[in-house]
Write a structure and sequence with these properties.
The protein is mainly α. The chain has one domain. Helix content is 78%, strand content 0%. It is rod-shaped. The relative contact order is 0.13.
């Protein structure tokens, strides 16, 4: 994103070869300042994207928690029905429903955890800063 072109000429000043050392240093300072500003904007955008992903993963974990709680309640109800009736008909049906809801909750939990595995480190900005640093080294030479 932050690209400096060597052939770029400005109408209000002479070519870089004709500039004095203080003018070159001032120009380098302006370019570095501009680069840092652009990199900060890119960093903010990438952090916002990571935060949105964490929000989605948090929603999945919350849904998993609700499903697991519902499964626990259904399984407890199934146990109560099974123990009171001892006929095992309605109780086993409740048990089956509880197991299905529990499996759904576990699937949501695993998906939410995998969505969070990306972490918060801004990898694209890190790569861009490394490229810009290399470019600055070449320009200073």
């Amino acid at each position: 994103m932050a690209e400096v072109r060597h052939t770029e000429m400005h109408a209000d000043r002479p070519a870089k070869a004709a500039l004095s050392v203080p003018e070159l240093v001032a120009d380098l300072g302006r370019q570095v300042s501009n680069l840092v500003g652009k990199e900060a904007g890119l960093l903010r955008a990438e952090i916002d994207e990571k935060f949105a992903n964490l929000q989605m993963a948090g929603g999945m974990l919350a849904a998993a928690g609700m499903c697991l709680l519902a499964a626990l309640l259904i399984l407890l109800q199934a146990l109560i029905v099974a123990l009171t009736n001892m006929g095992l008909g309605p109780g086993w049906a409740s048990l089956l429903v509880g197991v299905v809801v529990g499996v759904i909750g576990l699937i949501l939990l695993m998906r939410g955890r995998s969505a969070m595995s990306g972490g918060l480190l801004p990898k694209r900005v890190q790569r861009q800063v490394q490229r810009d640093a290399e470019m600055l080294k070449e320009q200073v030479k």
